[in-house]
Design goal:
Strand content: 15-25%
Distance between the termini: 40 Å
Largest sheet: 4 strands, antiparallel
Strand order of the largest sheet: 1-2-4-3
CATH class: Alpha Beta
Shape: globular
CATH superfamily: NADH Oxidase
Order of helices and strands: EHHEHEHEH
Helix content: 40-55%
Length: 141
């Protein structure tokens, strides 16, 4: 139910449970072996062909990627809301992932491991909000 450019939903999601495919994903992700340990791996791919007719080159190169990214983020939030854990993976060999999911016309954008958390890590430090937001804000006393 994620928003998308022109409501084209220019992305696809592949659900991988097969151990051999998860091992192949881990190798394609530069040996991020935690992918193999997860019960499920999700691969979010942009579908440029869905955006091109309406938005041309910008739709193919940007909007479809944004659509896949937003869908992945919403899926992560939904998973956490259900008590599951996820790990976002963006470092991978795109061509190898295309081969694993069997879709050369798609652009893999992100994948993640999905399952119940094995641990509760401490929160990592975040940048101060003042370092991120800039602009004209109302003065408060």
């Amino acid at each position: 139910m994620a928003p998308s450019a022109g409501n084209l939903q220019a992305y696809q999601v592949h659900i991988l449970r097969n151990q051999d495919k998860k091992e192949a994903l881990a190798k394609a992700a530069f040996d991020q072996t935690f992918l193999v340990q997860a019960p499920v791996c999700l691969v979010f791919s942009a579908d440029p062909n869905r955006s091109t007719p309406k938005y041309g080159k910008r739709g193919a190169q940007l909007y479809s990627v944004q659509d896949a990214t937003i869908a992945g983020t919403f899926a992560m939030l939904a998973a956490v809301d259900l008590g599951l854990a996820t790990v976002w993976v963006g470092a991978f060999d795109e061509e190898k992932v295309q081969k694993i999911v069997g879709e050369k016309s798609l652009k893999p954008v992100a994948m993640f491991a999905l399952g119940y958390p094995a641990e509760e890590p401490e929160a990592t430090p975040r940048r101060a909000i003042e370092e991120i937001f800039h602009g004209d804000f109302p003065q408060t006393d």
